[in-house]
From TrEMBL, chain A:
It comes from the Bacteria. This is Spore germination protein. The keyword Disulfide bond does not apply. GO terms for cellular component: membrane. PANTHER family: LEUCINE ZIPPER PROTEIN 4, SPORE GERMINATION PROTEIN. It holds the Pfam family GerA. The chain crosses the membrane at residues 277-296, 355-385, 397-421.
TrEMBL record, chain B:
This is Uncharacterized protein. Keywords: Germination, Membrane, Transmembrane, Transmembrane helix, Transport. It comes from the Bacteria. InterPro entries: Spore_GerAB.
């Protein structure tokens, strides 16, 4: 058939492309066996069509296209005229019925679908247990079941000249700032690449400052976190094939907020958040301060402690800076090896690496026990940061800080911290300053920052993400009752 | 969310008036006024409130245009204003260099006696070099985000240092020999280096639609006066006026003598460096940004060339006085002269111009 030939001309005919002819109906069905659900094709397309083919021609009163629309038990049918569009649908898991008049594309998605499982990189104690999967439709359904707002908007873009990856921009129309929404689309429209395999790749194409080590978008596997972000006026970007949804705009503080902060009482939520902030400070400063206090300014610490430190370092051939750098690199090695190994083995390797190598290094006289404690605290601090990317940057920042401290002592630590602050002040995420809300010092927004104030305090939607609706988020129950 | 809300304006007013925050004026005040410092301090506070109120009303009621750079060209006309603006650039860079020199000296004194000046200067410049090309808003973010942590730490350390104070050091309240008027004036002017920054930043605030209000500006003014008061009285209460007069950084010395027995950190002076360095880097940013902002408007070069010129001039002025003691003295006297010029000549002229503009507006109405 001519239309079938035109369609096949658009693609390379591989072994999994099947062209099935329906006798007597002058129809041909084209599909790719590896990406469609064959059982559904047999039951919902081939079976009804072959049954109709058996009916004598004079009894077929209904036109064929109308009959297909009325009798095939399928949800999505698209009428197409151009072979190019038909080929695109074919590659997007549709079965294409070719007739002399044109094409009918019927969605027959059939790849293996992983059911939503608990996210591995984004865990919660009291929060829900489902997480995003690699299939964008499943992810959308996880959002839709939580947000039944008629203003929930989803706009599609196809990115990747060759992968033709579906990217969905999700936001609540009257909550998200229209300027930021426009900016997101403008940036997505400028991305001209061969393929998008993961949301992380897309993130790097559309972020504000690609020289910065800090992530400027928040990646999450959690639908509840995504919904919370949508309700704050943020925008979610979903990429087909990636279980990580990107949230924009992002401020630094959002990396330290978790679902648990809100599902527990405000005292516990605040305590948890403060612990994370302390973890961040410990992770960045402990090795540098150890070097500054022992190498440059031992007069700051009590004499007893100085003597104790000197005693533990007795016989250690490495200078303190080299010792600290060596141990930090060891920790990173153990962590990276643990990540790459099979799960069960990786866990035991981390324990072996942590305990045995650390202990052996102390016994071999390469490092002092106090250094093992300092580096251990640092590693623990970094792992207490809930976001993987933020935790990773924090760990990496330690190395230049170690270097400046080893040259300038405590002044180097302070100077490097100020430089880091200066850098963070220049950062923006889709126009929103990275250190919001601290840089505006706007009172109501600080209720959910370092502390998590009682929910009754947050009657107004925070202005952090430039949401245009700043009125009450909920009815004023206490005053009303 | 509005970046320049009234809270931010209060913080910036504080930072503009505080300048370096190293309190070098305390020895001179202690020497000149002994325990009678409350008198010049009261005068200083009154003058400060008066000037800030005047600045507020000028900013609120004078119509600014996009072409205005400073209060000089806004109130004194294009050509005279341009001349004074370029003079102001010179003094702003000089102030910035003085800030750097103070910072370097204090670091060398407290922590790194053998580190070369050039190395410390380079480290210090890495902050404004990041912020200035990024624009005014990142600069403000830096100033604001570090304000409360640094201020809280400084006040905590200052209050801790009151442990060994002796209130008898404040007596007698009235000395038999009165200081002269010129002594009052020159000493008070030492506390007003931030006024030249106001000449530039009030116009910038206006351009960025800052929520300027008298309340927020006076809050910042009150804050800086309170901090100066705490520092002055700490130095006097712990060291006494005679010893304070002999030290270069009496407040640092007061913090230095504190020994925290049975604590993880026994001495606090290096921790005190944190708020000092934050204040210094803030002052350096503000001076350099203002100088660069004016120069960018007058020089027909790319922005990065202008920034290079500004930073090179600063580096020159920081390195040079280290080798020529007389240059330092000359620079110091020039700075004093410019302060005097600003308060004695410019402010009254500003006020008269302001009244004329107001009168014209009323007449037109």
């Amino acid at each position: 058939m001519e239309t079938t030939q035109k369609l096949i001309d658009q693609i390379i005919l591989t072994s999994d492309v099947v062209v099935r002819t329906i006798p007597y109906l002058q129809l041909e069905i084209v599909f790719i066996t590896t990406i469609v659900d064959l059982q559904r094709i047999e039951e919902h397309i081939l079976k009804p069509l072959t049954e109709r083919a058996r009916i004598p021609h004079e009894q077929q009163t209904e036109p064929l296209e109308e009959w297909i629309a009325n009798n095939l038990h399928v949800a999505k049918i698209k009428t197409l005229t151009s072979p190019k569009e038909a080929a695109q649908s074919l590659l997007d898991s549709a079965a294409v019925i070719c007739s002399s008049k044109g094409y009918l594309a019927i969605d027959m998605h059939g790849q293996t679908r992983r059911t939503p499982e608990e996210p591995k990189a984004d865990t919660s104690i009291r929060g829900p247990r489902d997480g995003f999967t690699e299939i964008i439709d499943v992810n959308v359904s996880l959002i839709r079941t939580r947000v039944k707002d008629e203003k929930l908007q989803m706009k599609e873009r196809i990115i990747g000249e060759r992968t033709k990856t579906k990217v969905l921009v999700v936001f609540i129309e009257d909550l998200a700032n229209p300027r930021i929404v426009k900016e997101v689309f403008d940036r997505l429209d400028t991305v001209k690449i061969d393929g998008v395999l993961d949301s992380g790749t897309l993130e790097q194409w559309i972020e504000d400052n690609h020289w910065s080590p800090y992530p400027q978008m928040q990646a999450t596997e959690r639908p509840d976190k995504t919904v919370a972000a949508l309700l704050e006026g943020r925008i979610a970007i979903m990429v087909d094939g990636s279980p990580f949804v990107l949230l924009a705009p992002t401020v630094m503080l959002s990396f330290f907020q978790t679902t648990d902060d809100y599902s527990q009482r405000w005292v516990s939520g605040t305590a948890l958040r403060l612990i994370r902030i302390i973890a961040l400070l410990v992770s960045i400063f402990i090795p540098s301060l150890y070097i500054a206090l022992t190498m440059f300014n031992p007069e700051l610490i009590p004499l007893k402690m100085v003597l104790q430190l000197a005693a533990t370092r007795e016989g250690i051939p490495l200078p303190i800076v080299a010792e600290a750098t060596f141990m930090e690199i060891m920790v990173e090695l153990v962590r990276e090896a643990g990540n790459r190994m099979p799960q069960q083995m990786g866990q035991s390797y981390t324990i072996v690496g942590g305990l045995v190598i650390g202990d052996m290094a102390v016994q071999a006289g390469i490092v002092s026990p106090i250094m093992v404690v300092a580096v251990g605290l640092t590693a623990l601090g970094a792992y207490a940061i809930p976001n993987y990317e933020a935790a990773f940057v924090t760990r990496m920042i330690r190395f230049p800080m170690l270097l400046t401290t080893s040259i300038f002592g405590i002044v180097g630590t302070i100077a490097f911290t100020l430089m880091l602050f200066a850098h963070l002040c220049t950062l923006r995420s889709f126009g929103v300053p990275y250190l919001t809300p601290f840089v505006q010092m706007a009172g109501p927004d600080l209720h959910d920052s370092l502390i998590r104030a009682p929910l009754q305090f947050s009657e107004k939607r925070p202005g952090t993400y430039w949401s245009p609706r700043k009125w009450l988020r909920r009815a004023n129950q206490q005053k009303g009752t | 969310m509005k970046q320049m809300n009234s809270h931010v304006v209060a913080i910036l007013t504080f930072e503009l008036l505080l300048s370096t925050g190293t309190m070098e004026w305390i020895p001179k005040w202690s020497e000149a006024f002994k325990s009678e410092v409350w008198l010049p301090f009261t005068l200083y506070f009154t003058l400060l409130v008066g000037i800030i109120t005047l600045f507020y009303y000028m900013t609120a009621y004078i119509p600014f245009t996009e072409n205005n750079l400073t209060l000089f060209d806004t109130l004194l006309g294009k050509y005279l204003g341009a001349g004074l603006n370029l003079l102001l650039v010179f003094f702003l860079i000089t102030y910035a260099s003085q800030t750097c020199i103070n910072g370097i000296k204090i670091i060398q004194y407290a922590a790194l006696p053998y580190t070369p000046i050039a190395a410390l200067l380079l480290v210090g410049l890495l902050i404004p070099i990041q912020l200035i090309p990024a624009g005014f808003e990142p600069l403000i973010r830096y100033q604001v985000s570090l304000f409360y942590p640094a201020l809280s730490l400084a006040i905590f350390l200052l209050i801790m240092s009151f442990r060994f104070s002796n209130l008898h050091n404040f007596l007698p309240l009235w000395l038999p020999v009165q200081p002269t008027f010129s002594s009052f004036l020159t000493n008070i002017l030492e506390l007003l280096p931030g006024l030249n920054l106001f000449v530039v930043y009030l116009v910038i605030f206006k351009k960025h639609q800052a929520a300027l209000s008298l309340k927020s500006m006076l809050l910042g003014t009150g804050g800086v006066a309170t901090l100066n008061f705490i520092n002055l009285y700490l130095a006097l209460a712990v060291l006494g006026p005679f010893e304070s007069a002999t030290l270069h950084w009496p407040v640092l010395e007061v913090v230095r003598v504190q020994k925290m027995a049975s604590s993880f950190i026994e001495r606090l002076d290096l921790i005190f460096l944190v708020p000092i360095l934050v204040a210094m880097s803030s002052a350096l940013n503000l001076y350099l940004y203002a100088a660069n902002y004016i120069l960018t408007s007058y020089l027909p070069f790319a922005k990065w060339i202008v920034l290079t010129i500004t930073v090179s001039a600063l580096g020159f002025l920081v390195i040079l006085p280290h080798y020529f003691v007389h240059t330092t003295l000359k620079i110091q006297s020039m700075i004093n002269f410019f302060n005097l010029f600003l308060v004695i000549v410019c402010l009254p002229v500003f006020f008269i111009r302001f009244l004329l503009i107001k009168k014209k507006e009323v007449h037109n109405d």
